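pinned: reference chain
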Amino acid sequence: MQEVILTEDELRQLCAEYQRILRLQDWRVRVKIGRPDPEQADDGAYVTYNTTLRVADILIVAPEYYPTNAMMPQDMEIDLVHELVHLYFALLGKPSDDTGKDLLEAAIESIAEAVVNLRRDNHNPGQEPKEQSP
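pinned: its structure tokens
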């Protein structure tokens, strides 16, 4: 997997496209690149939201703050979609235990990778499929 670093403008454009793909156009989503909060320093991105107002802020971690112990290179596009997919699960509430949290994160990551890879394959037809992470 290759590193994918984008500008805020590119992320905003992709956010609008993925909101359409994921049918989240009724959400107002702001995307920024920046420094993570200390309690989320191990994450590549995170989202804060209000389900009643359908508003969300997504922070994609700037490359200089990306966790040095990360198992995968930074892919801002997958991080963006991962945080958008969280909006679907937001209405269910947060899992009450660590196992539930881990399972939810794994499911969201799988969905995000699948959606991004489908879009990338459609934009680059005829290329070999990209390797999937195990």
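why pinned: The chain has one domain: 8-123. The first strand starts at residue 28 and ends at 34.
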